[in-house]
Amino acid sequence: EIYTLSLHDALPILVDREDELMSTSTIPPLPCTSVARVSTTRPARYGHQLASHMGRTLTAQWDEEAQAGRLIFDRDGTVSGVLELACESGALVMTLRSTPGSLGRLEQVAGIHLARFGHKDQLAVSWVREDGAAGSSQGPLSAEDMARMRREHQERQARHSRGRATEMSSGDDTVEAGHETHVKGDHDPLQ
């Protein structure tokens, strides 16, 4: 079986602020924990791919020698969670620490990305909370699921492009974005 990695996936992740943010002293208390042990014969490949891909918008680190990594969910400038990645024989172990309000959302974000990357291997992600309760589950994904997700992604991209084009052509102080009107400078939900 042949797998294609983009050049981005093949390169090590280098982020200037990585050392600062990877220090536990800069991460706020994250009281909730959820763990997913994902069965795979290639845990390092998937751990690296997840860190590489998500490192485009988050702070990420992957250590090839240790076969371990970390993602810091800091997209909006505030750390809402930390995902530790560790390879074991036959599994990628993901340990997510977060806040009660963000835990389920971050399980979904990390899990669906991994399920998508591993759809040909039928990867399934099932989270278990620290109290033993079931968290969310993602995958395995079918070809139909993948096609639907691609369509949804393309639709989001098209809406985002239309919103940006409307904003750029607007000469007044408001921007039409879908059915909502936003004052320029306000947070645009389409971004």
Which properties best describe this structure?
191 residues; alpha+beta; seven-stranded antiparallel beta sheet; 5 helices; 33% helix; 28% strand; globular; disordered N terminus; disordered C terminus
Structure description:
With about 190 residues, this protein is an alpha+beta fold. The chain has helices spanning about 5-10, 20, 45-55, 105-115, 145-170, and strands at about 30-40, 60-65, 70-75, 80-90, 90-100, 125-130, 135-140, 175, 180-185. It is built from 5 helices and 9 strands. The strands form 2 sheets. The chain has a 7-stranded antiparallel sheet. Strand 8 (about 175) and strand 9 form a beta hairpin. Helix 3 (about 45-55) crosses helix 4. The longest helix has 27 residues, at about 145-170. It starts with 6 loop residues before the first helix and ends in an 8-residue tail after the last strand.
Name the quaternary structure: single chain
Task: Work out the helicity level.
Answer: 25-40%
**Overall form:** globular
Q: How many strand segments?
A: 9
- SSE pattern: HHEHEEEEHEEHEE
Share in β-strands: 25-35%
DSSP summary: helix tally: 5
Low-confidence stretches: 1-25, 172-191
Largest sheet: 7 strands, antiparallel
Rg estimate, integer Å: 18 Å
- Strand numbers in spatial order across the main sheet: 2-3-4-5-1-6-7
Structural class: alpha+beta
Straight-line distance between termini = 37 Å
